[in-house]
Design brief:
The chain has 232 residues and is α+β, with helices and mostly antiparallel strands. It is built from seven helices and ten strands. The chain has two domains: 75 residues, 2-Layer Sandwich (Dna Ligase, domain 1), CATH 3.30.1490.20; 115 residues, ATP-grasp fold, B domain (D-amino Acid Aminotransferase, Chain A, domain 1, 2-Layer Sandwich). 35% of the residues lie in helices and 28% in strands.
Length: 232
C-alpha cells in the first residue's frame, strides 16, 4: 500500500512535511485525480522527463524545507522546449538556495502544464475540538484575498459536499460565469467525499492542502498538493 509506505518512510526520516510527489501519490491512491508529477534530481533528468511527458511543462522545486514554492522563486510554468527547461532549472536552484540557504533540495518536480480551469481549493485541517474538518472554496489567489471557504466535520456524505459548494459566495463561478466552462459539480462532490473517507481511515495526518484544483466541465484535477503529518 503506497500510503502506508510513504507515511512510514516520512516518520523514519523524522519528517512532518511530505513532498508534492508523495502527497499526489497518496491522493491518487485515495481515488483523487492529480497531474502526473515526476522527480528530476538533475538538469539532464528534468529535460528527459519533460520530453517524455510532452511540452509544455511546469517545474517546481522539490524540498520539504520550502513549503511556499512560489515565494522562493521555485516555480516555472509553460516551458516549451529543452532550452527553457534548462534555464528554468538553473533559475529555480539559484533562487531557492538564496531564499533558503540551509534547505535540503532534492531536485525539481516536473509535470505537464494543466489546461486552465476554475480554480478550487480543497483540504483538511485537524481541529482540536472537532477532529478532522474538510474545506472547500475558491482556490488560487482567491483563497487568500476572499477567504471564501466552507467547512464540514468528517465524515462527509455527498449531500454535505453539495451543501458546502452551495455555501460559498463565489458559487456562481462554478456555473460557468461569463462564458467560462461550468465546473463538474458531481466530480467535485465525489472528490470531497473521497478526501473525507481517506482522512477518516488514515490517522496521523494534520493537514491536507490541494490548491489549486482545476475544475472542468468533464472532471477535475489536483495541480498542487501538500500534506503535513501530525505528531506521533
Amino acid at each position: 500500500m503506497i500510503t502506508a509506505e510513504i507515511l512510514s518512510r516520512a516518520r523514519q526520516e523524522n519528517r512532518k512535511v511530505l513532498t508534492e510527489i508523495e502527497a499526489k501519490e497518496i491522493l491518487g491512491e485515495a481515488g483523487i485525480t492529480c497531474t502526473s508529477t515526476v522527480l528530476a534530481t538533475s538538469k539532464e533528468k528534468a529535460v528527459s522527463v519533460s520530453e517524455e511527458l510532452g511540452y509544455p511543462v511546469v517545474l517546481k522545486v522539490s524540498s520539504v524545507d520550502i513549503t511556499h514554492k512560489s515565494d522562493s522563486g521555485g516555480v516555472k510554468v509553460n516551458l516549451k522546449s529543452r532550452v527553457e527547461v534548462e534555464a528554468a532549472y538553473d533559475a529555480i536552484m539559484a533562487s531557492c538556495r538564496a531564499y533558503a540557504p540551509g534547505a535540503d533540495i532534492e531536485g525539481v518536480s516536473v509535470q505537464p502544464m494543466a489546461r486552465p480551469g476554475t480554480e478550487i481549493i480543497m483540504g483538511m485541517i485537524r481541529d482540536k475540538s472537532f477532529g478532522p474538518v474538510v474545506m472547500f472554496g475558491l482556490g488560487g489567489v482567491f483563497v487568500e484575498v476572499l477567504k471564501d471557504v466552507a467547512f464540514r466535520i468528517v465524515p462527509l456524505e455527498k449531500s454535505d459536499a453539495a451543501d458546502m459548494m452551495d455555501e460559498i459566495q463565489g458559487k456562481k463561478l462554478l456555473e460557468g460565469y461569463r462564458g467560462k466552462e461550468p465546473a463538474d459539480k458531481e466530480r467535485l462532490q465525489k472528490m470531497l467525499v473521497q478526501l473525507s473517507d481517506f482522512v477518516n481511515a488514515t490517522p496521523g495526518i494534520e493537514e491536507i492542502d490541494m490548491n489549486p484544483v482545476f475544475a472542468y466541465s468533464d472532471g477535475a484535477m489536483v495541480v498542487d498538493a501538500r500534506i503535513i503529518l501530525s505528531e506521533e
